[in-house]
Amino acid sequence: MEQLTIQPFSKPFDVVMSPPGSKSLTNRALVLAALSKQPCLLSNVLFADDTRRMLDNLQSLGFDLTIDESAHTVKVYGQGGEIPASLALLKCGNSGTTIRFLAAMCALGVGSYTLDGIERMRQRPIGELVDMLRNLGVRARYLDKPGFPPLRIDADRLPGGTLRFGAAQSSQYLSAVLMAAPLARHEVMIHLEPGLPSWPYVAMTMRLMTHFGNMVELERDPDSGQPQCIIVPRQPYQGEDYLIEPDASNASYFLAAAAIHPGAKVTIRGLGRHSVQGDVNFAQVLQNMGAQVSMGQDSTTLTGTGTLNSIDVDLHEMPDTAQTLAVTALFAQGTTTIRGLHTLRVKETDRLAALQNELMRLGATVEIEGDDVLRITPPPTLRPAAIQTYDDHRMAMSFALAGTRVAGVTILDPACVNKTYPDFFKDLEKLRA
Q1: Domain map of the chain by residue range?
Q2: Tell me, what's the pLDDT at 416?
Q3: Which CATH number describes the domain made up of 3-20+245-429?
Q4: Same fold, 3-20+245-429 and 23-243
């Protein structure tokens, strides 16, 4: 299907939703289970393009997996930190978590591992991760353009040591090193500089490491309380079964859909105050704009009040919700300012430029300030438009929300949602009362 025209909802809805498992948690859990001593059963696994890349590449590295898509489970037979294959070509598509997590994981092996992706992946920087690995004694080299894939890791087990991590282009670099670090030959210590991007994702990684049997030490600045140093002890992962939460980033679309439809109500099962995902806090952003929110231990309910106000908010801790908020801003009163967006330039596409282009198609006034700030002023009346998605799943899902309110919104290349949420448009139809 090359395009999909979204039909506006005719009346408010009241539904209970449970989005599929989190991509971020699925790919982290797959890596940690593969590094564990004993077999691990992962449940509510997401089966989408990004996670299939991880599954395929783990098998290329010699790991034994029992995959049951109908039950949404994967049993991973961990090798206790060993990488079975000594030679592998890992095809990562456009999955950033896959190429970053596996680059660090391969450093634990003994052999030569090549990591590559599609053309867009070859435009996405990986130099900061390579520098971190080199500081820990890893032999890594670029096979084409310096700082970008393809990349070769010539591994002789991860030596370890001390490094610094600051305002990088992606927190996934730190998460990648952290997951491999307990199996290094020497203890790993990471000094953290101010301005860390997407810290909740790093906290998520550390919580999963604890679940699989390794407790990292986090030191905070005594005055500011900001993370200052992470010490990763040398300790093997024992391994545990793990139930993966629904994806909080993907849940943001249904929460926003309720927020922009007066009288609509949605309850997200499996995501509440106990969630390990930082993006669960997007509900609070919508509440600050005027939606009514009730959050339990394992569920979140949002009701559209009929009034949405503009907001000035920093999303550096949950940048994957920026596109959802940008489209929500089309239905708010006044100019919405979204800050903390510098990492959006190097995602699946240049999301800042893509947002500006497509919001303007709908009639909005959009300003970009540097690489960090987006300002959105909605027009008096939104106009129909064919939305380019730039092979970016979040562009398709977020702009589909506009189509639930405005006639004539067409999503081009809707299949790009297969990256993380193949059934998104089917699930969006469940909101139609």
Answers
A1: 3-20+245-429, 23-243
A2: 95
A3: 3.65.10.10
A4: yes
The three-point CA angle 174-44-389 to 5° equals: 65
- pLDDT of residue 280 exceeding 90, the answer is yes
Name the phi and psi angles at 74, rounded to 5. Answer: -140, 125
Query: Where would I find the beta strands (DSSP E) of 362-417?
Result: 365-369, 373-377, 385-387, 409-412
Contact predicate 244/44, CB 8 Å: yes
Whether the predicted pLDDT of 319 surpasses 70 = yes
Which are the contacts of 317, defined by CB distance < 8 A and separation ≥ 6? 198, 199, 200, 278, 281, 340
As annotated, the active-site residues are 320
| Confidence tier at 121 by pLDDT (50, 70, 90) | very high
Q: Which helix (H) or strand (E) holds 32?
A: helix 23-34
State the amino acid at position 287 in one-letter form: Q
Q: Which two tokens stand for residue 362?
A: 């709908």
CB atoms < 10 A from the CB of 213, how many? 18
3-state secondary structure of 59: helix
Distance CA 121, CA 245 (A): 27
Of the candidate ranges 85-94, 319-328, 340-349, the one whose mean pLDDT is the lowest: 340-349
Mean pLDDT of the chain: 96
What's 117-177 look like in SS3? Answer: CCCCHHHCCCHHHHHHHHHCCCEEEECCCCCCCCEEEEEECCCCEEEEECCCCCCHHHHHH
Identity of the amino acid at 205? T
Query: Which of 3.20.20.80, 3.40.920.10, 3.65.10.10, 3.40.50.300 would CATH assign to domain 23-243?
Result: 3.65.10.10
Whether 139 has a pLDDT exceeding 70, the answer reads yes
